[in-house]
Amino acid sequence: MQLLISPSLRHVTVLPTKGFKEFVKVKVGSRRISYLMVFYSLLLFTFLLRFVFMLTAEDTIDGERKCSTLGCLGRKIGPRILGTQLESTVPEVIYQVLEEPTDQIEIEEGPETPQSLEEFMEEMKDTRPDAETFAVKLKAMVTLLEQRTRTAKIQEYLYRHVASSGIPKQLHCLDLKLAHEHSINANARLQLPSPELVPALVDNSYFHFVLASDNILAASVVASSLVQNSFRPEKVVLHIITDSKTFSPMQAWFSLHSLTPAIIEVKALHHFDWLTKGKVPVLEAMEKDQKARSQFRGGSSAIVVNTTEKPHIIAAKLQALSPKYNSLMNHIRIYLPELFPSLDKVVFLDDDIVIQTDLSSLWDIDMNGKVNGAVETCRGEDKFVMAKRFKSYLNFSHPLISNNFDPNECAWAYGMNIFDLEAWRETNISEAYHYWLEQNLKSDLSLWQLGTLPPGLIAFHGHVHPIDPFWHMLGLGYQDNTSIPDAKSAGVIHFNGRAKPWLDIAFPQLRSLWTKYVNFSDKFIRTCHIRAT
C-alpha cells in the first residue's frame, strides 16, 4: 500500500500494492482485521489530517507560516477542542492605522485608492503587502466609499426637499383652470352649502369634520374618501378652510363636484372676522419665526455643504425649510374652539390622508374628559414610525425642556384627531401653545427645530386620550416598506413625509391607495395631465 500526502496536506491518496492483501490479513492478537475496517481507518486518518490542516495552516499577511512545532500545534488545537477563547491574531499595527485620524484631502486626492472591494482584493493578491500597508489601503477605500455614500444621501435629501417644497405644474394648472372657471361659470360660484343646509353647520347632531388645505386635489381625495366610506353620508358635514388665493378654485371644484348628500362648507381665512393680527398671536410669531429661520438656517445651500453633520441631521434641517411649517394652515387647528364656537366635538383631518372606513364611531369614544383623541406613536411593530417619544421632537439639553417634561413620554400624531371643544374651552391649551412658540423664538429655535407637532405635544400635555392605532396608520410618505395588507386594513392612512401621493417621488405601490379616489376622466384632471402613474 502507498500513502501519498500532498505538500499542502489537502489531499491524501491510498494506492493498493501487491502485498496489500497480505497486509490486510495480518493478525492483531487472535483476531484478523477485516479489509473494511482498514479502509474506514484510513478514511478517518485522512479526515484527521485535513482537520489538523484547517486549524493550523494559517498564513499571516506577511506570508509567515504558523505552528511548525508540536507544542504550537497543541496550543492551536487544544483551546478549540476545549471550547476556550483564543487571543486575537490581528496584528496590532492594523488597529493603530485604523484608529489614526483620517486625512480627508489625502484620501480624496489619492490616485492609488481602490475604488471597489474587487479592486482592493486584486491589488492585495498581486502585491502581497505587509500588515500596515494592508490597513492603510483598506482604510482609504472604506473612507472614500463612505464619503461618496454620504454625498449621495445628502443629494437625495436635497432633491426630495426641492421636489416636495415646490408646486407641481399639474396642480398649478388645476388651480388656474378652476380659477378661470370660477370667473366665467356661475355654477362654479355656488354658495357652499346651499342656504337651506346652513343650519346643519352648527348642529351637533351631525358628524363635523374639519380640513385645512390649500391643495385642491388633496382636499378632493380626503372629501371623496370620507363620504364614500361613510355609513350615513347625509349626517356628514365637512368644513374646508383654505387661504384667500385658493378660495375661488376650491369653491369652484366643490361647486362642480357635488358630494351630496354630505354637506360641504368652503371658507377662506379672511372670512373669519376674529382672524386679525392683533387677535391672533401665532401670526406675529410666524413672522418672527420666518425671519429667524432665514438667518439661522442660511438656506438649503448652506445646509448641504456642511461636511461634519450626519445626513439625517441635514435632512431634518432641510425639512425645517419646508413652506408648510411657516403656513397658517398648519397652525389653524390650535384655534378650533374660536373657529367653531357652536360645536362640541370635531374630527380634524390633514390633507395627506385617505379615509378607508366609516368614522362615525369616533363620536362614541369616551374621551374621559380629555381634549385630544390621538394615536400614540411610541408603540408598534414599525420601529421607524412608531418609536417616537418626546425626546424625538424636543431638545432635552435645554433646561426649559428638561425641567418640565419627561424625555421618554409617549408622543402622539397629528393627522386624524378627535377634539372635544367643550373640554378644550375649559383649559389654557391655546395660551400654552402661544407661550412656547415665543420661548422657542427667544431661544433661537433651540427648543425644537420644525413643525407644529412639538409645540402641540407641549400645549396638549396631560390632555391627550390615546385611541386605537386602527384609526390612524402613519408613515406612508416616509418609507416604501410599509405593509400593503396593513395599509389596506387601516381606518385612515397618512402619507406624512416628503413622498406625498400627488408627487412624482411618491412610492408607486402605495400611491394607488390614494389615486383610487381621483376621477381621472374628469375634464379638469385630464386637461392638466394628472395621471395615476
Automatic annotation (TrEMBL):
The chain crosses the membrane at residues 35-57. Its EC number is 2.4.1.-. It is an enzyme of class 2 (transferase). One of its GO terms (cellular component) is Golgi membrane. The keyword Flavoprotein does not apply. SUPFAM superfamilies: Nucleotide-diphospho-sugar transferases. GO terms for biological process: cell wall organization. Pathway: Glycan metabolism; pectin biosynthesis. It is a single-pass type II membrane protein. Keywords: Cell wall biogenesis/degradation, Glycosyltransferase, Golgi apparatus, Membrane, Transferase, Transmembrane, Transmembrane helix. GO terms for molecular function: polygalacturonate 4-alpha-galacturonosyltransferase activity. It comes from the Eukaryota. Gene3D superfamilies: Spore Coat Polysaccharide Biosynthesis Protein SpsA, Chain A (3.90.550.10). It is found in: Golgi apparatus membrane. Pfam families: Glyco_transf_8 (PF01501). Belongs to the glycosyltransferase 8 family. PANTHER family: GALACTURONOSYLTRANSFERASE 4-RELATED (PTHR32116), HEXOSYLTRANSFERASE (PTHR32116:SF73). This is Hexosyltransferase. It comes from Solanum commersonii.
